[in-house]
From TrEMBL:
Residues 1-209, 239-426 form the Major facilitator superfamily (MFS) profile domain. It comes from Mycolicibacterium arenosum. Gene3D superfamilies: MFS general substrate transporter like domains (1.20.1250.20). This is Tetracycline efflux MFS transporter Tet(V). Keywords: Cell membrane, Membrane, Transmembrane, Transmembrane helix. The gene is tet(V). PANTHER family: INTEGRAL MEMBRANE EFFLUX PROTEIN-RELATED, STAPHYLOFERRIN A TRANSPORTER. It is found in: Cell membrane. The chain crosses the membrane at residues 28-49, 61-83, 89-109, 121-141, 185-203, 238-264, 276-296, 303-321, 327-352, 364-382, 394-414. It is a multi-pass membrane protein. The keyword Transmembrane helix applies.
Amino acid sequence: MSTHFDTRPAQPGGWRVLAPFGIREYRLLIAAVSLSIFAEGMWAVVMALQVIELDNDPTSLSLVATCLGAGLVGFVLVGGIAADRLNQRSIIIAVETVNVIAVTSVAVLSSLGALRIWHMAVAAGTLGIAAAFFFPAYSAILPRILPPEQLLAANGVEGVVRPVFQRAVGPAVAGVLVGATMPSIGAVVVAVLFAVGLVLLVATRPARVETVVADVPARPHVLRDLRDGCSFVVRTPWLLATLLFASMFVLVVIGPIEVLLPFIAQDRFHDGARSYGFILAFFGVGSALGALAVSSTRMPRRYLTVMMIMWGLGSLPLIVVGTTSSFGWMAVATFVVGVTDGAGMVIWGTLLQRRVPTAMLGRVSSLDFFVSLAFMPVSFAIVGPLSKVVSMEVIFMTAGIVPVVIGLVAYLVARMPRDEIENPLS
């Protein structure tokens, strides 16, 4: 059986990054995803400020964030197998439904004054599990609705939308809204955004199913699916090295940003909630500009080199985040980190879709998530207690320097310069 949408390209001409919008299913999909990303951006701030309101302790926020990370990592391999076996549209609709229910529950409990830390932990874990199914399904559906030459542009669109809404507009709006009202109001708005996104997803057309004349072999066992995906990753040096680099990057970087940054903003700036939201906003704007710059041109000839430079050296400004008491310098530092992160992510997403077989893309995408995020719950869990015995300055300095070293090692061990020459994509 083969499943696909209408993939007729838009008329030639115009700005390259806008080409995918000529296809109806993509327009509806990216509109729904944009609203969901906006909701996720708001939720990051709402969650942190709600936990601080309930219990002003980094350990409590570490617990809630760990549950989110554990849900994501624990189910992402299952999500990848599901994306290769089930209808991706149905998976994404189910994920959005779960998001609506989880956030609505938090909003109701908070409004009634019955919300507790364990409620937040359960909701975070549920959202993490939902995300584990979303990304592999989204990655696997794009090559089915878009022609190959439009994938870089589509990844660029997401590379702009995600940081703008998730890391800029969403956090900024949430910071202002919660600062002026209360976290429960923020949760209500997040639930509404997820609900509108769900309506748009339902409005998309189901994939057409056509019968292929040739005999189709029976699907292998689920564990064999997973084994095949793992074997492909291990046999592909640039892919394996990048995933291992990403796992170490997440271990030293994600925890400090997600858990400690809200407390830095509260301690160093007068209006902590609003400052935290705007700091994340500068990161998001930088990510959007980095993604837009890459997606508006052809794939770099030295694409692996550019990607590793962006992710490795791009972490250095985190040293400034840990040491400065100036909002301006912190904003500049997070902006630079965002630019390099956004540019690298667009190249990475396109690499997966161009160099990984379509039939295996869901599994490899889930392995990407699993390996690169395996240490995310660990980072969340240890950084809160660690901040009580080690200064935040030292923690952020480590987060800025370690990626440079491990990025260089991955680049050389996997012989990425030779690989990108032997496998041109531009």
